[in-house]
Fold this sequence. Notes:
- By secondary structure, the protein is an alpha+beta fold.
- It contains four helices and four strands; from the N terminus they run αααββαββ.
Amino acid sequence: xxxxxxxxxxxxxxxxxxxxxxxxxxxxxxxxxxxxxxxxxxxxxxxxxxxxxxxxxxxxxxxxxxxxxxxxxxxxxxxxxxxxxxxxxxxxxxxxxxxxxxxxxxxxxxxxxxxxxxxxxxxxxxxxxxxxxxxxxxxxxxxxxxxxxxxxxxxxxxxxxxxxxxxxxxxxxxxxxxxxxxx
Length: 183
């Protein structure tokens, strides 16, 4: 009976350690698998969040495109108006006549001459050329003419760079130089 007991005890001990090893190995494998899936789930969750962000950005871009397309006819009208503000380089030949006509409207004698060579426009930067001018007349008429000519009169966009003013008591004589802009 002792032999049977010893055999049973050896078999039980052996079976116990094998079972314990299987359970421990199963737990280790389960932990490793769960860690793998947890890491994979984090990666998938990050991918889903990123995909949603991209989808929202694309949706916003499509909405902006639709809004811009719906406003295209109105933008075309504004573009035509903007293009009309700056004459093309070939219309610069009419500047001296425009200048003299505007002077007549204000009761002053006005003349202008294009003096520089044309710098062509490049992209969004307008082209330009220099001019010189002379104006003579009553003081208030000369100042009104210069104000309207440099800031308010339609036809040409220009800047005045230099003025020289003289007076004989009744009339003022103004000479100057400036820059004309073209598209």
